[in-house]
Write a structure and sequence with these properties.
alpha+beta; 47% helix
């Protein structure tokens, strides 16, 4: 998979996640992808102060991104 395809797949994953975050007053944006393996995102809105943001990252965001782009090793929230 090319770098462009990885980015497109990560964006597709974020589009799948976004409605759930929006329903709680939050959002998410892609910050960068490093070496085609490490994704940095930014949780926004209500997600920045939510007590469940860590579980949202692991159970929702990371799992969905890896479904679309299995070569991704880590997903990190940049505050």
């Amino acid at each position: 998979m090319t770098t462009l395809e990885i980015k497109e797949n990560v964006e597709k994953a974020l589009e799948e996640i976004r409605p759930f975050l929006n329903s709680d007053g939050g959002n998410i944006s892609l910050v960068e992808i490093i070496e085609d393996r490490h994704v940095k995102v930014r949780l926004e809105g209500a997600c920045t102060s939510c007590n469940f943001s860590m579980s949202t990252m692991k159970a929702g965001v990371e799992t969905t991104i890896k479904k679309y782009a299995p070569q991704i090793e880590t997903v990190e929230n940049i505050a």
